[in-house]
Design the sequence.
């Protein structure tokens, strides 16, 4: 008996030693890889961007996944009865090392990609998917989650906890946690295949953006603004083509070229390069990848009992189902098409008056639209740009944040906070009255090789009371063309609006006041609303009079020019609405149609023909490079969300316009922050909007905003 006891004690001691040894190895590995380490430095720790190396990514992600899975298994195998405190809270706190590793992974993926990193990304994609499936399909874990959820239905928790368990349970159920073992296995296999396809899709688009650059001679720059010419010269020099002018295959380069270049053949070439990304029938072609993605998505949701992917995706969105989303789009579509006819007729009239002997084509639309703008509204976009200097616009962002959120932005001293590229600047965000630090705001403004196109916002650390109320670390990322040394960055009115838009996302992060990490998420057709609303402050008198100043004379933009801008505010809405809606409708069609019947090239062409898509316009994002939808699942069946959110935006903007002090009314601003920004996902979006507005949003506001006829018997966007 004593001998057995001694043996038992020895085994316990042995297990303890093994456990201790494993812990020591884990700690040692973390200490050796800076991408896993707890963040050090000011502001309660900041990312060690100065320690980033591609070679560290793979071991950091793998170790981070291993550590998180260990934490999950401990939670799942807890012998105590499942409660919110011993199941959900540990889940909310778990995975910190992996979160840190993914911060660096995201930077490499979006901001400083390289062939070396893309090889790592390709290798890791299926592993990350497999790791994710191990969590979402952990039977013991889901059993505990389900217990907490079912108990909460009988005895509700407090509002924050109830919202968390509702969201967690819903997410696990949507990810197949209730499937049988055979279906779970297939579900995981599909996710793994999809992750590899998403990575390949993104890499192909980026390759086509990098590989298709047009170099111009001095004789080919006719009509181009001086600021564009200087930037194009720098872009060429950066690519070892000194003496030439580079038109890169990104929206920020393509758009102004098509607007101003007098070289029609070159406009056509630039247009075709941009809109054929992922569609060149070469090694970077995405059409076959799209077919595979659609089939796999359809098979996966069929395992869960849904008729199509869109039905599954929209069940927890504001739209609730694809029918509601499509109904909203088709209410607006006819008005957009009617406006396009008017716009094309105006453009053709000018082309004919100039004896151009052409019929307006897609590569002519921007060029002749600019001529119509000048003729109809006496408005010259290039003249407007002289008052839209990036530094002043940045200060305008800070002013708006100060008026609405009481935030103050102060530049961070050089080198006190590490950055991942020399272009990145950092500001400290604090409360104007108390001086309390809210967070940091990083700005990465310029386009470069290895950076994906477009503009976006992200957060490196969000605010939650559970994790210690640390300062928020938010960033905005743009693709402005970097100027020649000593030259200003002058942007278009549309790009200035986008700058405000993305800053709206950053303010959404910075103003968060939530208890748990899960509540820091959002509903896709709602989270665009806050950022779209912030665009409205660009054209307010206070911003105009203080920050829209000529980059050379510092004179405020003339009132006459402002009047022209406001008068032309609905100009070209046919183009803008149609190119967007075409993409959004196609997204929904792709995900409500039997994928076996879809050949992407034919399906896009035939569906747009059925919709009477004007031949002078192309989808804003053609299928082969529609990254929102095919490089991941964030916007898949959800691109309509921009329009859904715009209904809320137009309606909320009218609330400010009707207030006593307009867009700077303190009471309306207080409700804006309290109900629409600070709660993040802690409150049902429809309920939150009603608390702000006192009613549901109405589509009439959107139609008025775009200068379209108001619909008869229009309905709200809420259920």
Sequence:
């Amino acid at each position: 008996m004593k001998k057995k006891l001694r043996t038992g004690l020895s085994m316990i001691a042995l297990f303890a030693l093994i456990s201790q040894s494993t812990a020591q190895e884990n700690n040692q590995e973390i200490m050796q890889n800076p991408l896993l380490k707890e963040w050090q430095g000011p502001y309660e720790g900041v990312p060690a961007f100065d320690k980033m190396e591609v070679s560290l990514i793979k071991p950091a992600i793998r170790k981070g996944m291993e550590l998180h899975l260990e934490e999950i298994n401990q939670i799942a195998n807890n012998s105590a009865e499942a409660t919110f405190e011993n199941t959900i809270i540990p889940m909310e706190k778990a995975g910190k090392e992996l979160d840190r590793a993914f911060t660096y992974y995201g930077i490499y993926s979006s901001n400083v990609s390289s062939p070396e990193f893309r090889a790592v990304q390709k290798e890791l994609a299926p592993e990350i998917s497999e790791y994710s499936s191990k969590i979402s399909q952990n039977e013991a874990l889901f059993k505990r989650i389900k217990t907490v959820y079912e108990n909460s239905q009988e005895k509700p928790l407090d509002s924050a906890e109830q919202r968390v368990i509702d969201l967690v349970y819903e997410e696990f159920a949507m990810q197949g946690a209730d499937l049988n073992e055979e279906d779970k296995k297939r579900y995981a296999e599909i996710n793994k295949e999809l992750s590899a396809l998403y990575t390949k899709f993104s890499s192909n688009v980026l390759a086509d953006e990098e590989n298709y650059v047009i170099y111009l001679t001095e004789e080919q720059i006719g009509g181009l603004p001086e600021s564009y010419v200087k930037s194009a010269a720098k872009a060429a020099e950066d690519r070892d083509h000194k003496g030439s002018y580079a038109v890169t295959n990104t929206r920020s380069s393509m758009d102004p070229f098509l607007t101003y270049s007098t070289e029609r053949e070159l406009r056509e070439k630039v247009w075709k390069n941009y809109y054929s990304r992922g569609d060149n029938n070469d090694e970077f072609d995405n059409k076959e990848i799209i077919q595979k993605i659609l089939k796999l998505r359809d098979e996966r949701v069929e395992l869960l009992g849904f008729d199509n992917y869109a039905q599954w995706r929209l069940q927890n969105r504001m739209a609730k189902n694809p029918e509601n989303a499509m109904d909203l789009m088709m209410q607006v579509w006819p008005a957009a098409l009617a406006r396009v006819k008017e716009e094309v007729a105006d453009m053709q009239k000018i082309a004919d008056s100039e004896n151009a002997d052409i019929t307006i084509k897609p590569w002519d639309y921007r060029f002749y639209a600019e001529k119509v703008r000048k003729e109809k509204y006496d408005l010259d976009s290039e003249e407007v740009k002289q008052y839209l200097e990036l530094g002043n616009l940045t200060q305008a962002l800070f002013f708006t944040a100060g008026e609405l959120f009481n935030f103050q932005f102060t530049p961070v001293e050089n080198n006190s906070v590490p950055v991942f590229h020399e272009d990145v600047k950092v500001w400290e965000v604090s409360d104007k009255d108390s001086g309390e630090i809210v967070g940091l705001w990083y700005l990465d403004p310029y386009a470069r090789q290895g950076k994906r196109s477009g503009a976006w916002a992200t957060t490196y650390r969000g605010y939650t009371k559970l994790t210690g109320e640390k300062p928020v670390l938010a960033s905005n990322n743009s693709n402005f063309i970097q100027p020649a040394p000593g030259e200003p960055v002058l942007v278009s009115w549309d790009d200035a609006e986008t700058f405000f838009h993305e800053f709206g996302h950053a303010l959404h992060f910075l103003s968060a006041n939530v208890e748990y990490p899960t509540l820091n998420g959002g509903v896709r057709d709602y989270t665009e609303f806050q950022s779209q609303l912030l665009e409205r402050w660009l054209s307010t008198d206070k911003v105009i009079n203080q920050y829209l100043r000529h980059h050379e004379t510092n004179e405020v933009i003339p009132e006459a020019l402002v009047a022209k801008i406001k008068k032309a505010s609905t100009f070209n809405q046919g183009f803008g609405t149609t190119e967007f809606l075409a993409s959004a409708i196609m997204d929904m069609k792709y995900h409500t149609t039997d994928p076996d019947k879809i050949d992407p090239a034919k399906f896009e062409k035939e569906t747009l023909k059925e919709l009477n898509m004007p031949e002078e316009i192309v989808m804003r994002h053609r299928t082969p490079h529609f990254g929102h939808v095919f490089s991941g699942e964030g916007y898949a069946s959800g691109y309509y969300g921009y329009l859904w959110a715009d209904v809320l935006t137009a309606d909320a903007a009218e609330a400010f316009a009707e207030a006593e002090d307009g867009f700077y009314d303190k009471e309306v601003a207080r409700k804006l922050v309290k109900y629409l920004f600070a709660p993040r996902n802690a409150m049902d979006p429809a309920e939150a909007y009603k608390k702000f507005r006192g009613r549901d949003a109405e589509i009439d506001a959107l139609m008025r905003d775009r200068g379209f006829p108001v619909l008869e018997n229009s309905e709200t966007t809420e259920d």
Residues 189 and 230 are 50 Å apart (CA to CA).
